[in-house]
Every structure is written in structure tokens, then in C-alpha cells.
């Protein structure tokens, strides 16, 4: 006898054969529910078998994901590589990592920005210490850069927008570059984040850089690190995270709270956004004669879902 509520379909039966749309949808939901129950029962059975075997139980199978099936990239950085260490000791960011320069950031916008982009820039300035917001009115970037260098700015961030929504970010390290162009998406301002914490304080945050494994990824990670002062003030308990997953860089800004010796709670402070690298250019911003180190070419580079560049 069948268990109550259990659906038994003939072996060759397909839900798509049902002509009535409502009935077809209902039967499909029943079938999905049944699949879920069977999967759960199998999971319970396996767990009981593992408990019965105890120490003799076979090791748990590692599930296949796109990340762990990643195509090997020959530029993946070995932490002990002498060549990489030499390059990093002599690159454009070396003065920052040697504590010879203190970051000073200019945040600007595309020409005549709208309200959402303006608010995003203001909130970004509260995340990055020692940053100044300047609203561009018809002034070309090529004219802004010499003025930035003359005033000892170490980085220039340009927020571009399309139809009143921030959709691009240009990050240029001064005075010698490089310049990275990112596509920006999923921007959430503070008021749009649920269960957010109180406004961030003026303490210097800690910076976490996750999964920047290749030479290109290292360069991008060092660019982000060079935006923040070298010595975080742990008393503020604020953390800025750049998490790279499948070449998408997710930015989050949190405050952590010690609930006890073992438990830590976190509050998101915002804003949050996602970046996708479009190009990395040598030197400062030059759209006409700039020399590019790396450009994202979709048709040539995105042939495999398991190939990542950062």
C-alpha cells in the first residue's frame, strides 16, 4: 500500500504531457516535494550509517563546485616566489607598503551626477579614511590628475553613472598608475540595508582581501589595500572586505561585536557593491593612448565557466 500523500508516476510519465496548465503546475510541485523528501531520507540514512561506523566511517565526499573545479592558471602566485617578492618590492605600491606614503584619496564623479551617485560618494568617503569628495562640472580627468598630484593625493576614484544609477568605477593610483576600470553593480546605500548598524565611526578600519590568487589578482588586491592607512585602529572594530569570487569582487563594510569569549556578532554598516574588472591600464588615466596590461575580452576569455582571471 502507498504511503498517504505519495505520488506514484508511471516510469515513462512526463509532467509536460499534462495539457491543463493548472494541473500540470500542481503535479510538478507534488513531484518536486517528493524528490525533496527522498533526498532528505537518503541524507538521514547516510548520517545514521556514519554514526554506526564511528571512526571507521569513510571520509565525507567533497562536493564539486565551480571554484574547486577551476582551470589552473599559470600566473597563480606562490607566496615563496622570489620573483614575485622582488616585483612587489619595486612596484608602484611599494612606497605605501614600506610606509613611506600615507593614503590621501580624491573621490569624484562623472559630469553632473544625480542624487543616488552623490549619496554613494558621500557614504564611500566615510568608509575610506582621509578621502575627499569633489563634484566634477565639465572638467576633464586629464586636467584633474595633475592637480591631484600637485596636492599630494595618492589615489583617484571616479564613480560613473548611467540613468541616475552608479554603474562604473575607475581607480587610478597616483602619480604613476596603474589605472583599473571596473563595472559596478548591485549598489546598496545604507538606508536600503536591512538590520544595519549605527553610522560608522572615524576609526581606521581593518582590510580583508579574499581570493586574489593570480598576478593580476595580486595587483588589484594591492590597489585596494593602498586606499586605506596601514595601521588599523582595532578599537573601532570596523572591517572593510573585498571578497573575490568567480572574478566578481564583493565589497562589504561591517562592525563586529564581542558577545562573549567565543561568540562574535557582526553588523553591516554599508554601502555595499559588486565590481567586475574590465581593464588594467599602465600609468594614469588615458583613454586615447593608454597602454593596457589586461583587457577583459568576453568572446575570447569567457569560453569556460571554470576559468577565472583574478
UniProtKB/TrEMBL annotation:
A Gene Ontology biological process noted in the UniProt record is: maturation of 5.8S rRNA
Record region (Disordered): 39-62
Where does the record place it? Answer: Nucleus, Nucleolus
Q: Which Gene3D superfamilies match?
A: Probable brix-domain ribosomal biogenesis protein (3.40.50.10480)
**Residue span, Brix domain:** 103-286
This protein's source sits in the domain of life called: Eukaryota
Q: Is Acetylation set as a keyword in this record?
A: no
Classification via Pfam families:
Brix
Keywords for this protein: Ribosome biogenesis, rRNA processing
InterPro entries assigned to the protein according to its UniProt record, in alphabetical order: Brix, IMP4/RPF1
The UniProt regions of compositional bias labelled Basic and acidic residues, in chain numbering, are 49-58
> Its function?
May be required for ribosome biogenesis.
Q: What is this protein called?
A: Ribosome production factor 1
Underlying gene: Rpf1
Amino acid at each position: 500500500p502507498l504511503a498517504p500523500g505519495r505520488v506514484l508516476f508511471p516510469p515513462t510519465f512526463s509532467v509536460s504531457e499534462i495539457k491543463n496548465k493548472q494541473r500540470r503546475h500542481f503535479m510538478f510541485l507534488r513531484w518536486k516535494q517528493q524528490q525533496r523528501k527522498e533526498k532528505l531520507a537518503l541524507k538521514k540514512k547516510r548520517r545514521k550509517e556514519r554514526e554506526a561506523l564511528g571512526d571507521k566511517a569513510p571520509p565525507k565526499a567533497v562536493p564539486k563546485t565551480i571554484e574547486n573545479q577551476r582551470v589552473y592558471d599559470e600566473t597563480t602566485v606562490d607566496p615563496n616566489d622570489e620573483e614575485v617578492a622582488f616585483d612587489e618590492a619595486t612596484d608602484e605600491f611599494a612606497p605605501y607598503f614600506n610606509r613611506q606614503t600615507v593614503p590621501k584619496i580624491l573621490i569624484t564623479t562623472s559630469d553632473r551626477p544625480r542624487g543616488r551617485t552623490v549619496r554613494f560618494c558621500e557614504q564611500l568617503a566615510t568608509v575610506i579614511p582621509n578621502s575627499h569628495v569633489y563634484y566634477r562640472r565639465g572638467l576633464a580627468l586629464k586636467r584633474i590628475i595633475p592637480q591631484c598630484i600637485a596636492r599630494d593625493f595618492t589615489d583617484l576614484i571616479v564613480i560613473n553613472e548611467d540613468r541616475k544609477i552608479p554603474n562604473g568605477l575607475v581607480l587610478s593610483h597616483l602619480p604613476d598608475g596603474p589605472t583599473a576600470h571596473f563595472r559596478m553593480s548591485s549598489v546598496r546605500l545604507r538606508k536600503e540595508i536591512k538590520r544595519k548598524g549605527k553610522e560608522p565611526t572615524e576609526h581606521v578600519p581593518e582590510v580583508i582581501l579574499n581570493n586574489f590568487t593570480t598576478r593580476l589578482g595580486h595587483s588589484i588586491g594591492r590597489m585596494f589595500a593602498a586606499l586605506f592607512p596601514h595601521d588599523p585602529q582595532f578599537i573601532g572594530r570596523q572591517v572593510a572586505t573585498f571578497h573575490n569570487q568567480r572574478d566578481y569582487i564583493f565589497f562589504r563594510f561591517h562592525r563586529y561585536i564581542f558577545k562573549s569569549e567565543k561568540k562574535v556578532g557582526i553588523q553591516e554598516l554599508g554601502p555595499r557593491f559588486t565590481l567586475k574588472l574590465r581593464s588594467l591600464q599602465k600609468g594614469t588615466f588615458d583613454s586615447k593612448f593608454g597602454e593596457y596590461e589586461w583587457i577583459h575580452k568576453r568572446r575570447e576569455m569567457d569560453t569556460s565557466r571554470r576559468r577565472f582571471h583574478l
